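Example record

One chain of 127 residues, shown exactly as stored in the release files.
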Amino acid sequence: MVKNIQYLAALYKDFHQLHKLMIFLFFVLLFIPISKSSAQTIEGDYKVGDTKCSIKMDVDYVFRVYWEDIDNPSLLKYKENMVTGEQVWVEKRKGNVVGNFILQNDYLSGRYVRFSDDAKIDVVKIQ
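Predicted structure tokens for this chain:
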């Protein structure tokens, strides 16, 4: 009888610890995809060469680029996915295309092509 009680107590202890582990794993698996997907948005602050810019969505659900030394924001529109998997975003100012952001799908890096002088500048998202 004592052995049976000890056996049941050991099973309960193992079950209780397993139950705690299952709850912990459930929350880990629940929150990891959320935090990863929230980082995968074009909105944020970027370092473009030596200059900083911010990409934000305005109240009209339009993306705008706010450059560090320029007063008026420019318009940013998605254009296409390249064969390499990168995304092309077109920047327009006063109706004219001024450059392209060519970003990795996670929006953490890429390059900016400035059309005025055909400069290709590295882009890094500031975390």
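Notes: Residues 2-39 form the longest helix (38 residues).
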